[in-house]
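Collaborator request, handled under Task 6.
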Amino acid sequence: MTVRGSSILVLGGARSGKSRFAEGLATGSGLGRHYVATGRAYDDEMRERIAKHRADRGDGWTTHEEPVDIVGLLRRIDGSDRVVLVDCLTLWVTNLMMAEEDVAARSSELAAAVAGLSCRLILVSNEVGLGIVPENRMAREFRDHAGRLHQLVAQSATDVYFVAAGLPLKMKG
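Structure tokens returned to the collaborator:
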């Protein structure tokens, strides 16, 4: 029998403190820590960001780099003795769009998987729907995909937080 773990969605804007908050939740769990990185380093600036993120996290994490098949990875590394932090879902949406994947189907697949995992799962994502309407079609599609993904995952998650200025606001749970 599989014991369902808890799942937490952490949303916030860029540099809001959402990753630091999520990492604190993971560290405080006392469980074996796994970090799922969805970002891709296409240029020096992104390589520097990834290196800084890794250094800021410190030791004690098992890192998995997976830009597209996070559901498959989550199923492979699932276990009740661990906490798995996925950072971040909006980069994942970008990767799916660039790979011409069916974002809606993948989003539904992730939301369904969240409910069935036994690990403590923490998902981090950028809230991108609070600003102006983007000027181009791809950016509007990205915003729409991210918003729909957040709604699906929030329905499946046991807890949802919104982080602004480093302050978490609990929205669910």
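The cover message to the collaborator said: "The mean pLDDT is 93. Helices lie at 18-28, 44-57, 70-77, 89-98, 103-114, 137-156. Please let us know whether this matches your experimental observations."
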